[in-house]
Amino acid sequence: MTGEKLPRKFGQSTIAVRGGVEPRASGSPIASPLVQSVNFVQDFGTAEGLLYTRYGNTPNEEIVQKRIAMLEGSEDALVLSSGMGATSCAMLALLRPGDHLLSSSWIYGGTRQLFSEEFVSMGIEVSYANPDERRVWRNTIRQNTRAIFIEAPANPTGRVIDIPQLAILAKNQGVALVVDSTLASPINCRPIELGADVVIHSATKYLNGHHDVLCGVVAGTSSYIEEVRRKMMVWGQAPDPFACWLLERGLKTLDVRVKRSNENTMRIAEWLGTRPEISKVHYVGLPEHPDHSLAKKLLDGFGGLMSIELAGGAEAVDRFSRRLRLISYASSLGGVDSLAVEPRFSSHAHMTSEERAATGIPDGFLRLSIGIENFEDIIADIEQALQ
Questions:
Q1: What residues make up the domain containing 354?
Q2: What is the 3-state secondary structure (H, E, C) of 139-151?
Q3: 180 noted as active-site residue
Q4: 301-352 pLDDT, tens per residue?
């Protein structure tokens, strides 16, 4: 199940369209067929060749897994039923009761809830490091540390962490470096090329890109992915064939969608920086962002996620959000449609106002996921909502 390696002359966009598909014979379909079957006829007297959707080895699963492995530059990849399912199975393939997990404090609220509540209840110790504090990673590693987990860029602040530097530390300490690269996608960043061991995606976001699939992805070595697969089978986290078919279709336009979103977001962020109603623009593509220099080294594009703080605080955000017309107020991100949402009412709703502020998400903080519409129309909608 190792990802098929196309010749290096093919770029990411070509791989996104054709990776994992054999050369087409005469009369074969251009679009991959949907094989909506849970089970398949098998040979007598052997377990070899057993195909079953929960095992992650049926036709639509195989195609998309090979393609994502090729995009990430990993030996193998596995598609699961959600981003949180992918994170859970990926980490449980690395951790056992009594082990220690060192996580960045700049992570998605649902992931933090998984670590702080579920993992701790399983006997896994969890510590959080503020990446802004120098030497914090080395000083927080313990003898029983088995993995370091980061988001890069982080949701929803867009902060970027030095993956190559952490990869060296993880290798020297004999621990796995796990990177949630959902916000970057393999178009903007490929963490395995930078030294990471494991890459996780909520494929619901950029990989699919159309707000119509719930999926997750884990990429890494073939032996590790087999361990994740065993967790997936036991915990029932396998995706439906139709979800994999839709994910493959979304991948075909990944390169052009992400690049268009990159361009739109940069233009909108620069424009927002001129508006007196906006007290702060959080976008790593802007020179004033604290991680701008690092992002220029690690990323091929600055991404489609940005956040703003309105001068009037939470009340101003509420008025602004209610006036939006083109931009929809909805959770999730990474699709062709532009969306806005307040993290305090979505991903970080389980945290107190003080806890959110400590992670850089004060009340009055609005996350914008910029889609592929004409950027002039997005700006016009924001402008009328500000008035």
A1: 254-386
A2: HHCCCCEEEEEEE
A3: yes
A4: 999 999 999 998 889 999 999 999 999 999 899 999 999 999 876 666 566 6
Domain assignment of residue 87, yes or no: yes
Same domain membership, residue 294 and residue 272: yes
Catalytic residue among 205, 229, 231, 344: 205
Query: How many folded domains does the chain comprise?
Result: 2
Residue 190 identity: R
108, 128, 206, 283: the active-site residue:
108
Whose tokens are 């909506």? That residue is 36
Known active-site residue 205? yes
Among 202, 233, 251, identify where a domain stops.
Answer: 251
> One of 54, 259, 267, 323 is an active-site residue; which one?
54
* pTM score: 0.93
Tell me whether residue 108 is one of the annotated catalytic residues: yes
116-169, pLDDT tens digit by residue? 999 999 999 999 999 988 789 999 999 999 999 999 999 988 999 999 999 999
The reply to whether 7 falls in a domain is: no
- Which is catalytic among the residues 180, 197, 291, 381? 180
